[in-house]
Amino acid sequence: MADTLPVDGPLRYRRILLKLSGESLMGSREFGIDQDVLASYAAEIRSAVHAGAEVAVVIGGGNIFRGVGNAHGGMTRAHGDYMGMLATMINAMALQDALEQAGLKTRLQSSIKMEQIAEPFIRRRAIRHLEKGRVVIFGSGTGNPYFTTDTAAALRALEIDADVLLKGTRVDGIFTADPEKDPSATRFESIHGNEVIARDLRVMDLTAFTLCRESSLRIVVFNFNEPGNLLRLLKGEPVGSLVHWDSAAVPASA
After folding, report:
1. 3: in domain
2. Which structural domain, as residue segments, surrounds residue 64?
3. What does the pLDDT look like over 183-239, one tens digit per residue?
4. Cys-Cys link to 182, which of 128, 144, 167, 177 (CB 3.0-4.6 A)?
5. Is there a domain that residue 50 lies in?
6. Domain count, the chain
7. What are phi and psi of 83, to 5 degrees?
């Protein structure tokens, strides 16, 4: 018998890939994992699942280790990236535990073989888990160095046929400038992907963004730290900033 839950009203997006940064798990700490943040994230994801959404998650590892940063400090980039993949698994396991304590069914899949703690990533199995109402967490990035967890999120979103890629951040969407540095920055409710590139807004790394563009996968950047935002977004309320690829709205360069 499937683990699905009853649907509470119509959803704009049914199957989602939620991308979270590892740094977001720190809360007010300088490093590591804040249990209160984990619990709040689990509550947000639970509300989405209870509303009938199929939820997959990719989470970074920057709160523990960043391969790129350490490569700049003298470490071999490939070696550092593999260490970063292990950091994502620590965060993925922490999130899995928080979700299960919140009463959800989960599956953790890894791009690197870790039989004692995670399933290997198998596309059809991941989709079947989602269909059964389980939250699927994808760890270890793509399993390859030189690719970010943004790229892993875009890749997995496409592989599971997600309706949208949701990038949870600590700001309310995409702005004309960094809103934490420029108080005059204004938010885009909707923006064409080509304009994101032309303005160099750096929503995601270029590899991830190119994957989304080639498959016309929509991206929504939103504040995941605002309680209720995820569910409001899924129900079609104007939350965050939508990146679209509609051919009728190709903008001029900035």
Report:
1. no
2. 15-249
3. 899 999 999 999 999 999 989 999 999 999 999 999 999 999 999 999 999 999 999
4. 177
5. yes
6. 1
7. -65, -40
